[in-house]
Amino acid sequence: MNVDDVVFDGEGLVPAVVQDANSKEVLTVAYMNRESLKKTIDTKETWFYSRSRQSLWHKGETSGNVQQVSDIRFDCDRDALLVLVHPRGPACHRGTYSCFTESLYHGEAKQKTEGFEILRTLAATIAE
Amino acid sequence: MNVDDVVFDGEGLVPAVVQDANSKEVLTVAYMNRESLKKTIDTKETWFYSRSRQSLWHKGETSGNVQQVSDIRFDCDRDALLVLVHPRGPACHRGTYSCFTESLYHGEAKQKTEGFEILRTLAATIAE
Question: Which of A22, A23, A25, A72 is nearest to A46 (CA)?
Protein backbone atom coordinates (compact mmCIF):
# COMPACT_ATOMS: atom_id res chain seq x y z
CA MET A 1 0.00 0.00 0.00
CA ASN A 2 1.33 3.41 -0.91
CA VAL A 3 -0.03 6.89 -1.59
CA ASP A 4 -1.26 5.91 -5.06
CA ASP A 5 -3.55 3.26 -3.58
CA VAL A 6 -5.49 5.80 -1.49
CA VAL A 7 -8.96 6.50 -2.89
CA PHE A 8 -9.32 10.26 -3.19
CA ASP A 9 -12.80 11.71 -3.79
CA GLY A 10 -13.97 13.69 -6.82
CA GLU A 11 -12.16 16.75 -5.50
CA GLY A 12 -8.95 14.83 -4.96
CA LEU A 13 -9.35 14.75 -1.18
CA VAL A 14 -9.43 12.14 1.56
CA PRO A 15 -10.61 12.76 5.15
CA ALA A 16 -7.84 12.44 7.73
CA VAL A 17 -8.72 11.76 11.36
CA VAL A 18 -5.93 13.06 13.57
CA GLN A 19 -5.55 11.15 16.84
CA ASP A 20 -3.12 11.67 19.72
CA ALA A 21 -0.88 8.59 19.67
CA ASN A 22 -0.61 8.58 23.47
CA SER A 23 -3.96 9.71 24.89
CA LYS A 24 -5.92 8.31 21.89
CA GLU A 25 -8.11 11.43 21.88
CA VAL A 26 -9.35 12.49 18.45
CA LEU A 27 -7.97 15.98 17.81
CA THR A 28 -9.18 17.05 14.37
CA VAL A 29 -10.81 15.91 11.17
CA ALA A 30 -9.12 17.56 8.19
CA TYR A 31 -8.54 16.75 4.53
CA MET A 32 -5.49 15.73 2.57
CA ASN A 33 -4.84 15.69 -1.15
CA ARG A 34 -2.12 13.58 -2.70
CA GLU A 35 0.49 16.33 -2.32
CA SER A 36 -0.22 17.03 1.36
CA LEU A 37 -0.18 13.30 2.14
CA LYS A 38 3.22 12.98 0.47
CA LYS A 39 4.51 16.02 2.38
CA THR A 40 3.18 14.52 5.62
CA ILE A 41 5.14 11.33 4.98
CA ASP A 42 8.27 13.16 3.84
CA THR A 43 8.39 15.67 6.72
CA LYS A 44 6.83 13.45 9.43
CA GLU A 45 4.59 16.40 10.33
CA THR A 46 0.97 16.90 9.28
CA TRP A 47 0.13 18.80 6.10
CA PHE A 48 -3.48 19.25 5.03
CA TYR A 49 -5.46 20.78 2.18
CA SER A 50 -7.66 23.70 3.16
CA ARG A 51 -10.93 23.52 1.26
CA SER A 52 -11.78 27.14 2.13
CA ARG A 53 -8.41 28.60 1.17
CA GLN A 54 -7.83 26.01 -1.56
CA SER A 55 -4.21 25.59 -0.57
CA LEU A 56 -1.91 23.34 1.40
CA TRP A 57 -1.27 24.11 5.02
CA HIS A 58 1.38 22.82 7.32
CA LYS A 59 -0.20 22.42 10.74
CA GLY A 60 1.71 24.56 13.25
CA GLU A 61 3.69 26.49 10.64
CA THR A 62 2.80 29.82 12.24
CA SER A 63 1.73 28.71 15.74
CA GLY A 64 4.52 26.22 16.31
CA ASN A 65 1.91 23.62 17.24
CA VAL A 66 3.14 21.02 14.80
CA GLN A 67 1.99 17.42 14.94
CA GLN A 68 4.74 14.80 14.69
CA VAL A 69 3.43 11.77 12.83
CA SER A 70 3.93 8.32 14.31
CA ASP A 71 1.62 6.26 12.09
CA ILE A 72 -0.77 6.64 9.17
CA ARG A 73 -3.45 3.99 8.76
CA PHE A 74 -6.09 3.54 6.09
CA ASP A 75 -9.48 1.91 6.31
CA CYS A 76 -11.05 -1.05 4.54
CA ASP A 77 -12.32 1.15 1.68
CA ARG A 78 -8.99 3.03 1.45
CA ASP A 79 -10.96 6.28 1.43
CA ALA A 80 -10.23 7.52 4.96
CA LEU A 81 -6.96 7.99 6.85
CA LEU A 82 -6.16 7.78 10.56
CA VAL A 83 -3.08 9.83 11.44
CA LEU A 84 -1.53 9.18 14.85
CA VAL A 85 0.51 12.11 16.10
CA HIS A 86 2.46 13.56 18.97
CA PRO A 87 1.05 17.09 19.14
CA ARG A 88 3.41 19.90 20.14
CA GLY A 89 0.54 22.13 21.25
CA PRO A 90 -3.20 22.62 20.82
CA ALA A 91 -4.77 21.09 17.72
CA CYS A 92 -7.53 23.67 17.44
CA HIS A 93 -7.21 27.25 16.18
CA ARG A 94 -9.22 28.25 19.28
CA GLY A 95 -6.33 27.08 21.46
CA THR A 96 -8.00 23.91 22.71
CA TYR A 97 -6.28 20.54 22.80
CA SER A 98 -8.92 19.03 20.48
CA CYS A 99 -11.35 20.52 17.96
CA PHE A 100 -14.06 18.29 19.47
CA THR A 101 -14.88 20.11 22.68
CA GLU A 102 -18.67 20.27 22.62
CA SER A 103 -21.37 17.65 22.79
CA LEU A 104 -24.43 17.41 20.61
CA TYR A 105 -25.79 14.49 22.61
CA HIS A 106 -24.91 12.85 25.93
CA GLY A 107 -26.04 9.26 26.33
CA GLU A 108 -24.32 8.90 29.69
CA ALA A 109 -24.37 11.20 32.66
CA LYS A 110 -20.64 11.73 32.45
CA GLN A 111 -17.67 10.44 30.47
CA LYS A 112 -17.14 7.67 32.97
CA THR A 113 -13.53 6.97 32.11
CA GLU A 114 -12.33 10.55 32.55
CA GLY A 115 -11.36 10.04 36.17
CA PHE A 116 -9.05 7.25 35.15
CA GLU A 117 -7.14 9.30 32.58
CA ILE A 118 -4.18 8.93 34.95
CA LEU A 119 -3.95 5.24 34.01
CA ARG A 120 -3.85 6.09 30.30
CA THR A 121 -1.19 8.69 31.00
CA LEU A 122 0.74 6.12 33.04
CA ALA A 123 0.58 3.62 30.18
CA ALA A 124 1.81 6.26 27.72
CA THR A 125 4.59 7.37 30.04
CA ILE A 126 5.83 3.84 30.65
CA ALA A 127 5.80 3.27 26.90
CA GLU A 128 7.92 6.37 26.14
CA MET B 1 -26.42 23.06 19.69
CA ASN B 2 -28.79 20.67 18.01
CA VAL B 3 -29.03 18.71 14.77
CA ASP B 4 -30.03 21.81 12.79
CA ASP B 5 -26.76 23.52 13.70
CA VAL B 6 -24.62 20.81 12.10
CA VAL B 7 -23.05 21.92 8.82
CA PHE B 8 -23.87 19.27 6.21
CA ASP B 9 -21.98 19.35 2.90
CA GLY B 10 -23.44 19.89 -0.57
CA GLU B 11 -24.72 16.32 -0.59
CA GLY B 12 -26.34 16.71 2.81
CA LEU B 13 -23.68 14.64 4.60
CA VAL B 14 -21.31 15.05 7.51
CA PRO B 15 -18.37 12.74 8.28
CA ALA B 16 -18.77 10.80 11.52
CA VAL B 17 -15.71 9.38 13.26
CA VAL B 18 -16.75 6.41 15.37
CA GLN B 19 -14.57 5.85 18.45
CA ASP B 20 -14.73 3.16 21.13
CA ALA B 21 -15.70 5.04 24.31
CA ASN B 22 -13.57 2.73 26.44
CA SER B 23 -10.45 1.84 24.45
CA LYS B 24 -10.51 5.15 22.51
CA GLU B 25 -9.60 3.28 19.32
CA VAL B 26 -11.05 4.77 16.14
CA LEU B 27 -13.31 2.15 14.60
CA THR B 28 -14.78 3.65 11.43
CA VAL B 29 -15.26 6.81 9.43
CA ALA B 30 -18.76 6.88 7.96
CA TYR B 31 -21.25 9.54 6.89
CA MET B 32 -24.51 10.74 8.35
CA ASN B 33 -27.27 12.82 6.83
CA ARG B 34 -29.77 14.71 8.96
CA GLU B 35 -32.14 11.75 9.13
CA SER B 36 -29.51 9.20 10.19
CA LEU B 37 -28.18 11.60 12.82
CA LYS B 38 -31.68 12.02 14.25
CA LYS B 39 -32.19 8.25 14.24
CA THR B 40 -28.84 7.79 15.99
CA ILE B 41 -29.93 10.16 18.75
CA ASP B 42 -33.43 8.67 18.99
CA THR B 43 -32.35 5.02 19.11
CA LYS B 44 -28.96 5.51 20.86
CA GLU B 45 -27.46 3.24 18.21
CA THR B 46 -25.48 4.34 15.14
CA TRP B 47 -27.26 4.95 11.84
CA PHE B 48 -25.34 6.10 8.78
CA TYR B 49 -25.97 7.08 5.19
CA SER B 50 -24.42 4.77 2.62
CA ARG B 51 -23.10 6.81 -0.29
CA SER B 52 -22.78 3.72 -2.51
CA ARG B 53 -26.27 2.35 -1.77
CA GLN B 54 -27.76 5.82 -1.32
CA SER B 55 -29.76 4.70 1.67
CA LEU B 56 -29.74 4.73 5.46
CA TRP B 57 -28.15 1.83 7.27
CA HIS B 58 -28.45 0.83 10.88
CA LYS B 59 -25.03 -0.50 11.90
CA GLY B 60 -25.44 -4.08 13.13
CA GLU B 61 -29.00 -4.51 11.85
CA THR B 62 -28.15 -7.81 10.16
CA SER B 63 -24.92 -8.76 11.98
CA GLY B 64 -26.06 -7.85 15.46
CA ASN B 65 -22.90 -5.77 15.88
CA VAL B 66 -24.71 -2.61 16.90
CA GLN B 67 -22.90 0.35 18.40
CA GLN B 68 -24.48 1.86 21.50
CA VAL B 69 -23.92 5.60 21.53
CA SER B 70 -22.56 7.26 24.64
CA ASP B 71 -21.70 10.71 23.29
CA ILE B 72 -21.80 12.72 20.07
CA ARG B 73 -19.41 15.65 19.76
CA PHE B 74 -18.98 18.20 17.00
CA ASP B 75 -15.89 20.14 15.99
CA CYS B 76 -15.10 23.85 15.85
CA ASP B 77 -16.44 24.13 12.28
CA ARG B 78 -19.53 22.04 13.10
CA ASP B 79 -18.84 20.01 9.95
CA ALA B 80 -17.51 16.79 11.52
CA LEU B 81 -18.91 14.52 14.24
CA LEU B 82 -17.18 12.31 16.79
CA VAL B 83 -19.43 9.48 17.93
CA LEU B 84 -18.33 7.60 21.05
CA VAL B 85 -19.79 4.12 21.23
CA HIS B 86 -19.84 0.84 23.07
CA PRO B 87 -19.52 -1.67 20.18
CA ARG B 88 -21.35 -4.98 20.51
CA GLY B 89 -19.05 -6.66 18.00
CA PRO B 90 -16.61 -5.89 15.18
CA ALA B 91 -16.99 -2.50 13.50
CA CYS B 92 -15.72 -3.67 10.13
CA HIS B 93 -17.60 -5.76 7.57
CA ARG B 94 -14.41 -7.89 7.34
CA GLY B 95 -14.95 -8.96 10.94
CA THR B 96 -12.17 -6.86 12.45
CA TYR B 97 -12.59 -4.72 15.55
CA SER B 98 -11.69 -1.56 13.60
CA CYS B 99 -11.76 -0.63 9.92
CA PHE B 100 -8.26 0.85 10.34
CA THR B 101 -6.11 -2.27 10.45
CA GLU B 102 -3.34 -1.45 7.97
CA SER B 103 -0.59 1.13 7.94
CA LEU B 104 0.42 3.34 5.06
CA TYR B 105 3.35 4.73 6.99
CA HIS B 106 5.15 3.82 10.22
CA GLY B 107 7.10 6.63 11.83
CA GLU B 108 7.95 4.51 14.85
CA ALA B 109 9.25 0.99 14.99
CA LYS B 110 6.15 -0.24 16.77
CA GLN B 111 3.01 1.15 18.33
CA LYS B 112 4.77 1.60 21.61
CA THR B 113 1.67 1.76 23.79
CA GLU B 114 0.16 -1.50 22.54
CA GLY B 115 1.79 -3.57 25.26
CA PHE B 116 0.10 -1.41 27.85
CA GLU B 117 -3.39 -1.86 26.46
CA ILE B 118 -4.07 -3.78 29.69
CA LEU B 119 -3.90 -0.51 31.63
CA ARG B 120 -6.46 1.11 29.34
CA THR B 121 -8.67 -1.91 29.73
CA LEU B 122 -8.22 -1.73 33.50
CA ALA B 123 -9.21 1.94 33.52
CA ALA B 124 -12.30 1.18 31.44
CA THR B 125 -13.26 -1.78 33.61
CA ILE B 126 -12.93 0.20 36.83
CA ALA B 127 -15.05 2.94 35.30
CA GLU B 128 -17.88 0.57 34.32
Answer: A72
Interface list for A 11-40 with B (CB within 8 A): 15, 17, 19, 21-26, 28-29
Q: Scanning every residue of chain A, which has its alpha carbon at the shortest distance from the alpha carbon of B105?
A: A72
> Are the CB atoms for A18 and A27 separated by under 8 Å?
yes
B87, B27 contact by CB (below 8 A): yes
SS3 category, A4: helix
Cα–Cα distance for residue pair B101/A69, rounded to 1 Å: 17
Q: Is A109 on the interface with B (CB under 8 A)?
A: no
**CB-based contact B8:B37 (threshold 8 Å):** no
CB pairs under 8 A between A and B: 160
Distance CA(B118)–CA(B74), nearest Å, equals: 29
The ipTM assigned to this model is 0.84
User: Which residues of chain B have a CB within 8 Å of the CB of A105?
Assistant: 41, 69, 71-72
Per CB-CB distance under 8 Å, the chain B contacts of A1 are 102-104
pLDDT digits 0-9 by tens, B31-67: 999 999 999 999 999 999 999 999 999 999 999 999 9
Q: Hey, is the C-beta of B56 within 8 angstroms of any chain A C-beta?
A: no
- Asked if B50 contacts B57 with a C-beta cutoff of 8 angstroms, the reply is yes
Tens-place pLDDT, residues A80-116: 999 999 999 999 999 999 999 999 998 765 544 445 5
| Residue partners of B1: CB distance under 8 A and separation at least 6 | A102, A103, A104, B74, B78
Cβ within 8 Å, pair A123-B113: yes
Residue type (1 letter), A112:
K
